[in-house]
């Protein structure tokens, strides 16, 4: 088992049932603009759940060598049929093609994902979410393909690409047309997991320390005072279980706990984060 596996990777397959059902609904009758907007809105949420950035450090939910995923294939096929019937709406076609690409990507079907991405026209994307996702799609594809590599191999062959991806992901969170908060989290957290993978592969202690700090600090900067308090609290009894802030805090705990565990016996293991709350959680996390 990869030591960087996060609990967030263990995603139930039923999350894709919504997309399958939605596509079936679309194909069964007349499509209104309201229905299409609803599909796009809900698929945004489903895609981000399935593409939780923590998956990257552990590899893939679906082993490509094991063959296709029936539900993924069915959902993608329904999207394909729908798109073939509505080629006269380029904005909708590109938005749904982007989601088809992410669907393939999140299940390890990289060639199909790359083909779907290639059919998206950036000029036909209009939401901040879609623009940001498409802007970083080369890095999403790269990370999903290489995240399971052993640290030595990753550092030797992927260091430059990792640094480029981290820079691009951070830039998108600060773009003029800002992405929505959940996508900002997605980009920052994926960047952090890439930084963890890279930092832990660096032999020089000082360089490793700097890379790991740089990976985590931008997440801390995005936290509200209430979220920083929740990060180090001993109980979540008053936290809303499905609230964006709660999910953000729980995923960050997973990130910091993983980092603490994997640096327990490393030289210069003490990291200094910009946020005292992040530092406190890291310092007290089980090793």
Description:
This protein is mainly α and about 290 residues long. It folds into 2 domains: about 5-130; about 140-285, no CATH class. Helices cover about 65% and strands about 0% of the residues. The protein has helices spanning about 15-25, 35-50, 55-60, 70-85, 90-105, 110-120, 130-135, 135-145, 150-175, 180-200, 205-220, 225-230, 245-260, 275-285. It is globular. The protein starts with 16 loop residues before the first helix and ends with a helix. Mean pLDDT is about 75; it is low at about 1-35 and about 35-65.
Could you give a short description of this structure?
By secondary structure, the protein is mainly α. It folds into two domains: 7-130; 139-284, no CATH class. The chain is 67% helix and 0% strand.
């Amino acid at each position: 088992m990869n030591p960087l596996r996060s609990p967030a990777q263990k995603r139930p397959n039923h999350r894709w049932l919504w997309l399958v059902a939605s596509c079936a609904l679309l194909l069964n009758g007349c499509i209104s603009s309201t229905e299409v907007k609803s599909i796009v809105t809900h698929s945004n949420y489903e895609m981000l759940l399935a593409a939780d950035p923590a998956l990257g450090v552990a590899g893939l939910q679906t082993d490509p060598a094991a063959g296709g995923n029936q539900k993924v294939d069915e959902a993608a096929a329904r999207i394909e049929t729908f798109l073939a019937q509505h080629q006269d709406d380029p904005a909708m076609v590109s938005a749904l093609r982007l989601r088809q690409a992410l669907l393939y990507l999140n299940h390890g079907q990289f060639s199909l994902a790359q083909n779907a991405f290639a059919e998206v026209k950036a000029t036909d994307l209009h939401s901040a979410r879609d623009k940001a996702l498409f802007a970083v799609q080369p890095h999403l594809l790269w990370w999903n393909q290489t995240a399971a590599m052993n640290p030595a191999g990753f550092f030797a062959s992927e260091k430059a690409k990792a640094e480029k991806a981290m820079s691009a992901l951070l830039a998108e969170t600060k773009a003029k047309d800002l992405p929505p908060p959940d996508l900002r989290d997605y980009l920052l957290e994926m960047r952090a997991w890439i930084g963890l993978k890279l930092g832990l592969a660096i032999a020089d202690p000082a360089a490793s320390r700097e890379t790991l700090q740089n990976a985590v600090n931008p997440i801390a900067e995005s936290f509200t005072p209430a979220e920083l308090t929740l990060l180090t609290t001993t109980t979540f009894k008053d936290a809303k279980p499905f609230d964006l802030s709660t999910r953000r805090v729980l995923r960050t705990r997973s990130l910091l706990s993983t980092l603490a565990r994997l640096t327990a016996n490393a030289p210069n293991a003490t990291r200094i984060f910009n946020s005292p709350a992040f530092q406190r959680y890291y310092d007290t996390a089980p090793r």
